[in-house]
Design a protein that fits this description.
By secondary structure, the protein is mainly alpha-helical. The protein is 87% helix and 0% strand. It has 5 helices and no strands. The longest helix is centred in the middle third of the chain and has 114 residues. The radius of gyration is 53 Å and the shape is rod-shaped.
Length: 191
């Protein structure tokens, strides 16, 4: 029976219950017959029935103990299965979480690197814009010098009269920078 219980615990429990019920019914039948014999004052028969009932009691107790043991084993097996299922679910949840964490960590690293690259590109762009503005000021100074030279040459050959003011200064870049807070900030950044 122990081998059957290990292989088929539910069947073993049901078999033990049926056997215990059969033995309890048999004992109840003996006890009922004993009561009838005593009421009929058939003491010899009552003594025989009492001996049979007494002989049956250990088998009833053993059968009930077996039912209790199989029930406890069945409950323990069910609890074990539920614990295994819960542990498997927990492992699966942890594996999913680990995969999600790895994916999120990779995404975080990638986003961090991308942000750093964009920040560096912005810094480089500001540095480049500041350098371009400085070159624009330098070119504008040269433009002003060329205008003065043109005027001086035209005056020297009589094509123009000497100007009484310095109208040769070009200031388009300065005006654009003064009108644009962004260009002003870039120029002042010192980049």
């Amino acid at each position: 029976m122990a081998t059957d219980a290990a292989v088929h615990p539910a069947e073993a429990l049901e078999t033990a219950r049926a056997e215990a019920k059969r033995l309890r019914n048999q004992l109840a039948s003996h006890e009922s017959a004993l009561t009838e014999a005593l009421e009929a004052k058939d003491y010899r028969r009552a003594e025989d029935i009492q001996q049979q009932a007494n002989a049956l009691r250990p088998a009833v107790l053993l059968a009930e103990a077996q039912v209790s043991a199989f029930q406890a084993a069945s409950d323990a097996l069910q609890a074990h299965r539920e614990a295994e299922t819960a542990a498997a679910r927990q492992r699966a949840a942890e594996e999913r979480a680990d995969a999600q964490l790895a994916e999120a960590a990779a995404g975080e690293r990638e986003a961090h690197e991308e942000a750093a690259a964009h920040l560096q590109a912005a810094r480089d762009a500001i540095t480049g814009a500041a350098a371009a503005l400085r070159r624009a000021f330098e070119a504008e100074l040269r433009e002003s010098e060329y205008r003065r030279n043109i005027h001086e040459i035209e005056v020297s050959v009589g094509r123009a009269e000497r100007a009484g003011f310095n109208g040769f200064e070009v200031n388009n870049v300065k005006v654009a920078v003064d009108l644009s807070p962004a260009l002003t900030a870039i120029l002042r950044s010192g980049a």
